[in-house]
Amino acid sequence: MVPPAPSRIVEGMNRLGELERAIMDVLWESAEPMTVRQVSVCLIDRDLAHTTVMTVLDRLAKKGFVRRERAGRAWRYRPAESREAYVAELMLTALGETGDRQAALTRFARSVSGPEADALREALAALTREAPSGWT
User: Fold this and answer.
1) CB atoms within 10 A of CB 135
2) Within this chain, do residues 50 and 75 fall inside the same structural domain, yes or no?
3) Which CATH number do you get for residue 68?
4) What is the residue range of 43's domain?
């Protein structure tokens, strides 16, 4: 039996621009939701206007990449999903673009380091242990 396809985290997940990705990196590194000003401070080397960061965060919220909540008059932003979920979605998107998924997976498996291969084996073994009866 073929396992069910993973659900898509966010439609268009791989469509982050360079500035969007930089802002997401700031949010992924933070343990707490951040205001526009806090994000701007972390991007000080880019010399961005406050309104630019605010616009990008608003667009990221509309795209579903970030969640926002009111904190007085300001918004606080946090990632909708983890960086790992984002990267996994990128990998799934790339895999979906190949004509031969098995060949692409085999090539990928041959190109990872020993510790990465161990991590893959461990993850697959855990999936097998957790899989419902009849899933292979």
Assistant:
1) 12
2) yes
3) 1.10.10.10
4) 18-79
Same domain, yes or no, for 87 and 72?
A: no
| pLDDT per position as a tens digit, 64-79 | 999 999 999 999 999 9
- Over residues 13-65, the pLDDT tens digits come to 557 899 999 999 999 999 999 999 999 999 989 999 999 999 999 999 999 99
Give the single-character DSSP code of 132. P
| Number of domains comprising the chain | 2
Strand residue runs (E) in the chain: 66-71, 74-79
Report in angstroms the alpha-carbon separations of 5 from 12, 89, 92, 96, 120: 17, 12, 10, 11, 18
d(CA 44, CA 25): 14
- Residue 60 buriedness (CB in 10 A; 0-12 / 13-18 / 19+): buried
pTM for the predicted model, two decimal places: 0.75
